[in-house]
Design goal:
single chain; about 400 residues; alpha+beta; 2 domains; about 50% helix; binds adenosine-5'-triphosphate; binds magnesium ion
């Protein structure tokens, strides 16, 4: 590595060392160095400095990005406890450069604080991380409660790493979580969104969900879901959520792509359904009730976890397809087939049907309709022909015909 040649220290650090020690392929590589961002930039032409509060260098190798960070000193080393420095006229709180020995203490878990020296292939371990790694233990560096207060997201990281690595939380690291869970409410929604993607879309969604539940963290991320799941008399909505998570983990294991909107739509489905029911009880028709409920549910969720607009739009598409699916007569089914989120909406319907939240006949009707040729489709959607429309909801489908046609761009 070129940093080495330029006589700087360079270490692989964090997740990549931890994962390499487990014989796993790291997601990405982080490098810690005593070179400053400016010096890094001089050495690597293919380098970009990012971040204001916490400046890092991204060095590009083809499609790979290696994150190169300069050793940081910790806030505690400063007698004011504030450690605010000026640089280029800006206030930069976290850009106090330090030594490796200082850099160690700002890291979260001991197993994330192993430094692999690329000069002599040795591992620098100030915190007992090698031992914890061998024992499969996640242990926060320093006083756990203080470290969670400093950054409550570490509670989510604890769960994420425990599940991903199959490690157990050290009792001292585990103990404060339930009590401090509320602190997560102070985290900016954009950061929590990034965090839930890592929690739920990395192939261990179901286990993660259960562990988050266990520590009272799930209800902070998805308060509406928690509320409605707790009100339940029946268990099928919970079953639906579990099945959705399990399916997406299986997709991940099969190397298929995972989209955030499908799972998010599943997580918020029960609140949406219940809220839409309330609206319908107030006399709103189904399409309007679902639109209003979606606005309400999403607005509340956005205060906790920001979500990009294309994601919330896709969630709406999947949700609104659910009531549209009940209309199986005439030209509507053909139009639904053309909708961009049809496939996701159909998968969602199948999941509901499998867990008691929708009629299996309806899901089966849509399966057949997709496979059917023109002739069969005509018969399936014809009210006059025997077998037209799916059996049970037939009357309901006709009832909704011509009534409050949902507008196309919901
Ligand atoms: P992943 O496999 O998810 O990338 P990672 O351990 O590399 O896991 P990153 O979020 O990429 O996690 O962070 C890289 C390293 O930076 C961590 O290993 C840890 O040492 C440090 N770090 C990251 N976030 C925090 C935090 N919130 N508090 C303390 N240290 C952190
Ligand atoms: Mg990483």
């Amino acid at each position: 590595m070129r940093l080495k040649k330029a006589n700087f220290e360079a270490y692989l650090v964090g997740g990549c060392v931890r994962d390499l020690l487990l014989g796993r392929e790291p997601k990405d590589f982080d490098v810690a160095t005593n070179a400053s961002p400016e010096q890094i930039k001089q050495i690597f032409r293919n380098c970009r400095i990012i971040g204001r509060r916490f400046r890092l260098a991204h060095v590009f190798f083809g499609r790979e990005i290696i994150e190169v960070a300069t050793f940081r000193g910790s806030d505690n080393d400063d007698d004011s406890g504030q450690h605010v420095v000026h640089e280029d006229g800006r206030l930069l709180r976290d850009n106090v450069f330090g030594t490796l020995e200082q850099d160690v203490w700002r890291r979260d878990f001991t197993v994330n604080a192993l430094y692999y020296n690329i000069r002599d292939f040795s591992v620098v371990d100030y915190t007992g991380g090698m031992q914890d790694h061998a024992n499969g233990v996640l242990r926060l560096i320093g006083d756990p409660a203080a470290r969670y207060r400093e950054d409550p997201v570490r509670m989510l990281r604890a769960v994420r790493f425990a599940v991903k690595l199959g490690f157990t939380l050290h009792p001292d690291t585990e103990r404060p979580i339930t009590e401090l869970a509320d602190l997560l409410r102070g985290i900016p929604p954009a950061r929590l969104y990034d965090e839930i993607l890592k929690l739920f879309l990395a192939g261990y969604g179901l286990q993660t969900y259960e562990m988050l539940q266990h520590y009272g963290l799930f209800g902070i991320l998805f308060p509406q879901t928690e509320h409605y799941l707790n009100l339940l008399e029946h268990d099928f909505p919970r079953l639906f959520l579990i099945r959705a998570l399990d399916n997406s983990d299986k997709r991940f294991a099969d190397g298929k792509s995972l989209t955030p909107y499908f799972l998010l739509a599943a997580i918020l489905w029960e609140p949406l359904r219940e809220t839409a029911k309330k609206h319908m009880a107030n006399g709103e028709n189904e399409a309007i009730a679902y639109q209003n409920a979606a606005n309400e549910i999403l607005n509340k969720q956005l205060r906790v976890t920001a979500m990009p607009r294309h994601i919330t739009q896709a969630m709406r598409d999947v949700w609104f397809l659910q009531h549209k699916f009940t209309r199986t007569l005439g030209s509507r089914p053909y139009r639904l087939l053309e909708q961009p989120k049809f496939r996701a909406g159909y998968d969602f319907l199948v999941l509901r049907a499998e867990t008691g939240g929708a009629e299996p006949e309806l899901a089966e009707w849509w399966r057949q309709f997709q496979e059917a040729d023109e002739e069969k489709r005509k018969i399936m959607t014809s009210p006059s022909e025997a077998g037209g429309g799916h059996s049970k909801r037939r009357r309901k489908s006709t009832r909704f015909r011509n009534k409050a046609r949902p507008n196309g761009n919901e």
